Amino acid sequence: MSTVGKALSLLDTLSQLNHDAGLTAIARLCNFDKATARRLLVELEKHGFVEQNTETRKYRIGSAPVRLARIREARYPFLRIAIPFVKELAETSEETVHLAEFSGGTLSTIHVEDSPRAHRVIVEIGTRLPFHATASGLAYLAFSDKKHIEAALSKPLESFTEHTITDPAAVRKMIDETVERGFSISSQGLEAGVVSTGAAILSPTGQPVGSITIAAPLARARAATLASFGAAVADTAKRISEKYYGPERPSGTRT
């Protein structure tokens, strides 16, 4: 791995922690020796990508990524455009709705609207969404090209619950069903007791750039409810795409 790759890997690891971390912990999590980790942290701190607490000597994400994110959003306002649609879907469904974007080979949650109900699904910003184990991921793969699908399914598929589908052939069947329906369904693939329906947000070329998903407790996920949620997420994904890119775009196809 190049030096740049190591630095980005360290930064990504740090971004997934919900607390400050010391040098030893960071080195262990990144599988680096302490000297390498220290050198990378020093350079990242110089450029504002990490910050060190002067009292605890522990590290956290710095302000530079925030500045870059704001610049990107100002120029390509995907989040600003999509949020009103996410809010609307959360209000009508009364379930948790989350928006995901694909970047750097990973599908991650970038916005969440919580359900108003006491019994609800909790999704955190920045959550990585495994392609095979989530409605978001299945929706994304359903409209990806075959090369991307093969790459996602060629590596060992991690099991997160006793219900996670890890057989590539079974996942491909779920992808085909998603294409036919226009939305995906994942039952307890990532977390037990949670059922989700998702739809891909497509670019003008018909390729997915992200997804929108309704996540509901299993107790409320009846077949008729899932069908209704599926139609709603598919319609919302289409409206987000039209608002962001314009109404003239091809329908998604796999090549």
Main attributes of the structure:
9 helices; 2 domains; Arc Repressor Mutant, subunit A; two-stranded antiparallel sheet; alpha+beta; Beta-Lactamase; 7 strands; globular; 45% helix
Helix content: 40-55%
Give the terminus-to-terminus CA distance. 31 Å
Mean pLDDT over all positions = 92
Overall strand count: 7
Q: Give the CATH class of the largest domain.
A: Alpha Beta
The outline comes out as globular
List low-pLDDT spans: none
Biggest beta sheet attributes:
5 strands, antiparallel
| CATH architecture classification name of the largest domain | 2-Layer Sandwich
Task: Give the gist of this structure.
By secondary structure, the chain is of the alpha+beta class. The protein is built from 9 helices and 7 strands.
Task: Please tell me about this protein's structure.
This protein is an alpha+beta fold and 255 residues long. It folds into 2 domains: 3-66, Arc Repressor Mutant, subunit A (Orthogonal Bundle); 76-245, Beta-Lactamase (2-Layer Sandwich), CATH 3.30.450.40. Helices cover 45% and strands 18% of the residues. It contains 9 helices and 7 strands; from the N terminus they run H-H-H-E-E-H-H-E-E-H-H-H-E-E-E-H. The chain has helices at 3-15, 23-30, 34-46, 64-75, 78-93, 135-142, 146-154, 168-181, 223-245; strands at residues 50-52, 59-61, 96-103, 106-113, 184-187, 194-202, 208-217. The strands form 2 sheets. It has a 5-stranded antiparallel beta sheet with strand order 4-3-7-6-5, sandwiched between helices. Strands 1-2 form a two-stranded antiparallel sheet. It is globular. It starts with a helix and ends in a 10-residue tail after the last helix. The model has no long low-confidence stretch (mean pLDDT 92).
